[in-house]
Amino acid sequence: MAAPPLIQLRDIALTFGGTPLLTAADLSVSPGERVCLVGRNGSGKSTLLKIAAGLIEPDRGTRFLQPGATLRYLPQEPDFEGFATTLSYVEAGLAPGDDRYQARYLLEQLGLDGDEHPARLSGGEARRAAIARTLAPSPDILLLDEPTNHLDLPAIEWLERDLAARRCALVLISHDRRFLETLSRITVWLDRGTTRRLELGFGQFEARRDEILAEEEREQHKLDRKIAAEEHWVRYGVTARRKRNVRRMAQLQALRETRRSFRAAGGKAEIAAAEADRSGALVIEAKRISKTFDGRPIVTDFSTRILRGDRIGIVGPNGSGKTTLLGLLTATSKPDSGTVRIGANVWIAALDQDRDSLNPDWTLTEALTGGRSDTVSVGGQTRHVVSYMKDFLFTPEQARTPLRALSGGERGRIMLARAFAKPSNLLVLDEPTNDLDLETLDVLEEAIADYDGTVILISHDRDFLDRVVNAVIVPEGEGRWTDYAGGYSDMLVQRGADVVAKRRPEPAKESAAAKAPPAIPGKRRLSFNEKYALENLPKQIAVLEAQIRTLQATLDDPALFARDRRSFDATSQALVQAQAELAETEEKWLSLEILREEIESAQP
Q: 140, 175, 206: which is the final residue of a domain?
């Protein structure tokens, strides 16, 4: 018998400003289930999650939380008011009886020491503190709204491993495809106010979604043809009769009402960058450039050549200097030494990651036109602002909407619209994927693929990088940067290691060993256990990978859930455990392999 749900929402309806946002939304989550909640920006995903968290009361519907079940919710914008340090903020989320050590442990794992003042946190640090507060109590169910926003790659991958190892139920909203593919086993699709529950992870969802929408379009086409046939009968089939068939007229009215009540799926964004004349073959040439801040090397002796048509991704932990390097390459800042040469006929259009630069009092029209008129210049051609807005999925009714009323994803689309209106042959994009829904991300990828010029971008979205770039620039420490051919996954293969954030040094502890005289340095050798592990860990990895493929193949059976819920739950749990064990084993092997290489390189 299936376990009762930990939380259940039924027939949820909610209207904002006279417009129905949710009309008949359901959400049911049982112990251990991994659910991703997907839908377009503005479809109500965050609102539904807030209703599940008990923060918003719906106009209609019921919310049930199993008695005794503990729930924690991660908002997109955490409130730090009243807290002096990040540690006090995280500890305030603990209940009596919770492990107090977890607060400091999670902060340390996320690169914080607990003494930071919340008012001085960066966006990434604020998100890390909020994640620590949410995870510290080890709740029965986690509701996470865009947990990867503002996180760098090391933090995203740490969070993936931590969530995969937990036994709690999970509901995720995220624009990070790879994050969703790794963690989700069930997809709840919020579309036009209602939800569809699909017993498959996000990796299989998009193909199934496209099938559903295609079938829906076929059914509407059939309905349109049937209405046309009935209307023909009304006009021409009864001209010789005084009385019409009342029953058939009623059927026609019912068909018309069905057609009127149908809400078509939202349109597709039409993002295209306005292009200037072609640049020269050489776009940027940097020779031995260096930059230091407060004695800390950010870029050291870096050289590169960027040619027309290149797609360059810059990746690395927060604080590693990605934006600084981007500024040096585009000549918006000067290096301490070295030279940067911009090629002939290069026209740059830049997207800044700082959306706070948008005046919240502007209307959408003012943001796109600069407040000058109702027209916007796109690639040197004049277009009405409402027409251009529609390309980025805004409605005419939103033209006078102040920016403060828009969602993060909508503000992201405005930034893209502003940047792409300017004629260019070099696109410079700093975190372009933040807050964008998955459909808009697809269109952005297509726009970049169709762009004839050159693209340099910063992103923490691994899937986006793999789809878009053909080279990656990665920090190696002490200001050193290296070019790798291919996307993010290709870089991992060539580099043999992931992008790792530097941790703060551990405080020195006074001990007998510390007081003892320093030992005479000798040659470091691998111990017997380390050698044994190096030889046998790859075999364990192969076994675990085979086990994961078998478990995944079992879960891919769409009828398993309905046929044998107990087997489905057991298989899902076994898959989560196997994935966590694989991640731990791979990390252990990688650490030993790096140690082996260091020892061999140190030998004369």
A: 206
